[in-house]
Design brief:
This protein has 6 helices and 25 strands. With about 425 residues, it is of the alpha+beta class. The strands form 5 sheets. Strands 1, 2, 5, 6, 10, 11, 12 and 13 form an 8-stranded antiparallel sheet that branches. It has a 6-stranded mixed sheet with strand order 16-15-14-23-24-25, covered by helices on one side. A 6-stranded mixed sheet has the order 17-18-19-20-22-21. Bound molecules: fe (ii) ion. The site of fe (ii) ion (FE2) has 6 residues, from loops.
């Protein structure tokens, strides 16, 4: 390792900008016998929040490090660099780093964006005595960004993995096989985020295997579940799955349009009323759902969402229940469906012509068909055990004036459990 003056680590970038040809590796002798240079990369890269000119990448690290993304449009030409920094200070962390790429122009969607993440060890001896280790990089990945004008689009949604390693491994294999343009993790990634469990490992390295990468070559869209807000480290979750860059107050609300499909994510929050004694005054989901209701009304009126031939919403807790189901608005028991969310959001989804809600939470798959009163179907994915687990596959395509959407729920063996097709 090298001990270097602070001036030597000055990087020629400003927050979130891209410098062509930048070489941000300042120093380091790379002595592998030194613990400072031990392997630091502790998760595969997890791509999030694709936009026409950017995307974000999170990576878990095993020691204090800075990170950057090198990217370009050929595997052997990663000529752009985006560095994680905030108010001029380059980000450093010993658990997780998030780098957002802001490209000067629109990124291609008809060919991959090639990228790798580089992390570099950092140690402070004093304010002017900083040490840097050897940069360590991930392999180069070919990222396909979903095309806003796509003729066809595939979304796969999974839910309620609850840290079940066997299920998570099999889901990785099925996701590779189905090869979606966008992966949705529809809540309950964990049982809770209590120490000593590492929040970033559950969220970014759920298979506990750097070679299992379900969101390194496609973006992940996270839809928050009731277990994802439990535990003393739950507040760290948004450092790994960073939420919507445009709405920091409503991080889990996204309204995206890709080709024939509009997808809106809603956060049902906890499964009991805020005043429930188990929350000990830490729950404020009732006003939060109301805020989301106002947001939802606004986004369904946006031209990009309104004009989509097909519209789906994700909510971890179902919005429709079966007769006798607990709606979670009273202190007894817990929600089988979100009575609060149903009242606030379903009328808007219905009026805006949404075809379906994708949800989970019940650990048992089902399809709630349209009724005269409720034309919005509900696909409920299964549970954490391999025999309960499911993948919900949404295929939407458009050919001239004709468009069709097919939604299927599959089990881990690929058996078809539920299906519905729409034509317009
Ligand atoms: Fe749940």
């Amino acid at each position: 390792m090298g001990v270097i003056p602070v001036s030597a680590v000055a990087l020629t970038t400003v927050p979130g900008t891209v410098v062509q040809g930048a070489e941000p590796n300042p120093s380091g002798t790379g002595d592998p016998s030194d613990d400072f240079n031990r392997p630091l990369i502790a998760s595969p890269p997890v791509v999030q929040n694709p936009r026409s000119q950017g995307f974000g990448v999170s990576i878990a690290v095993a020691g204090l490090a800075t990170a950057w993304v090198e990217y370009g449009f050929a595997e052997d030409d990663l000529s752009f660099t985006a560095i994680a920094s905030h108010h001029g200070l380059v980000q450093a962390d010993d658990q997780v780093l998030h780098v957002r790429v802001h490209h000067p122009d629109e990124l291609p969607t008809d060919r991959p964006v090639f990228y790798r993440v580089v992390v570099q060890p950092l140690r402070y001896r004093s304010a002017y005595q900083l040490e840097r280790g050897e940069p360590q990089e991930t392999p180069v990945f070919a990222l396909r960004l979903p095309d806003p004008n796509a003729k066809r689009l595939r979304v796969v949604s999974i839910n309620d993995t609850h840290e079940n390693a066997a299920t998570i491994r099999r889901l990785h294999a099925k996701i590779e096989e189905l090869d979606p343009d966008l992966l949705v993790w529809n809540g309950d990634t964990c049982n809770d985020f209590n120490a000593p469990k590492a929040t970033e490992q559950i969220l970014l390295n759920p298979a506990n295997d750097l070679a299992q990468r379900w969101a390194s070559t496609r973006p992940l869209l996270f839809s928050n579940g009731n277990h994802d807000v439990r535990g003393e480290r739950a507040r760290e979750a948004s450092r790994s799955l960073v939420g919507c860059p445009e709405s920091p107050d409503l991080p889990y609300n996204q309204a995206l349009r890709f080709g024939p499909l509009a997808i809106v994510t809603l956060d049902t929050g906890e499964d009991k009323p805020d005043a429930h004694p188990v929350f000990a005054g830490t729950a404020a989901y009732e006003p939060y759902r109301e805020q989301q209701a106002a947001w939802l009304k606004q986004v369904v009126a946006q031209p990009a969402i309104r004009s989509a031939p097909f519209k789906i919403a994700t909510t971890h807790i179902p919005l429709r229940g079966l007769p006798g189901h607990n709606d979670g608005t009273a202190v007894d028991g817990y929600a089988y469906y979100s009575g609060f969310g149903a009242k606030l959001w379903l009328p808007t989804l219905k009026a805006a012509g949404f075809q379906a809600v994708l949800s989970g939470h019940m650990h048992r798959d089902r399809l709630d068909e349209a009724t005269d009163q409720m034309p919005v179907l509900q696909f409920v994915g299964g549970g954490p055990k391999p025999e309960q687990a499911t993948l919900t596959v949404v295929d939407a395509q458009r050919d001239g004036d004709r468009a069709e959407m097919n939604i299927r729920i599959l089990d881990l063996d690929g058996n078809l459990l539920h299906q519905k097709q729409w034509n317009s």
